[in-house]
Amino acid sequence: MGALANQPFVKMNGIGNEIVVVDLRKGAPAIAPEEARAAASPQGAPYDQLMALYPPRIAGTDGFIRIYNNDGSEAGACGNGMRCLASLVFNESGKDALTFETKAGILNCWKAGDGLYTVDMGPPRFKWNEIPLAEEFRDTRAIELQIGPIDKPVLHSPAVVNMGNPHAIFWVDDVNAYDLAKFGPLLENHPIFPERANITLAHIVSREHIVIRTWERGAGLTKACGSAACATAVAAARLKRTERKVRVTLPGGELTIEWRADNDHVLMTGPVEFEFAGTFDPQLFDKAPAP
Ligand SMILES: N[C@@H](CCC[C@H](N)C(=O)O)C(=O)O
């Protein structure tokens, strides 16, 4: 028996990023890739990311979180999912601040008022081997990568950032003018990204406002990707094109992102929405398709 059969779940969204939260604090094995894929099927609870909450492994933390994409792969960070999961733990615990261990490190969350939640996503990483990239680039503010005809590229020179996950950001004038469903998978799986990458189109509207659309590694087109919003804000500020605090508009809503000058951490603030609660049918996992 795997981890998810008969397991209660909560379906939520973070500005349209489809999130399923599973509370495994009573103990359960790690979720196998085929189980994660079966859980995301139409007979399960279709999601972009599944957030699995395990008992704390480090004293002083509120739990250990593992994050799964709907293709069964594991993600390091998920900003929208963190807000959703934290909102549930805030409700049950009455606490004002929470600390979770994730693959991307220790993340703190707190209530920001007006139904908003802030997640401290930690510091961004910029070195080529931290993104990671397959070859050395000394300056990751714009790397040599393009798609389309060699003399007339459709997209080119992305900034790359690791924000718990690998991100590539292409600067454009209109995020809706590109077929991201076509270019996204090509770029996500480009050999320059040995661990694949999240692909974002970003339009800088002003020094305080950016509009983005993201093709997510392991999940495809989503209405919102919180870590992409963080990565984009950081990349734009690094190029001195924006302030360190910006409003980011995504297809599903808005986030406020602040790259702190004092400790280098990136703070993401936004809402969450509860949709429904359910229980995973064990038969779903009997029929789990082979990878
Ligand atoms: N939607 C998430 C990011 C999801 C992780 C990503 N697909 C990956 O595997 O890198 C967010 O809100 O940050």
From TrEMBL:
Compartments reported by the entry: Cytoplasm
A GO cellular component entry from the record: cytosol
Active site: C78, C225
Positions bound to substrate: N17, Q49, N69, G79, N80, N165, N198, E216, R217, G226, S227
GO molecular function terms attached to this record: diaminopimelate epimerase activity
Protein family per UniProt: Belongs to the diaminopimelate epimerase family.
Quaternary structure note: Homodimer.
Protein known as: Diaminopimelate epimerase
Annotated gene: dapF
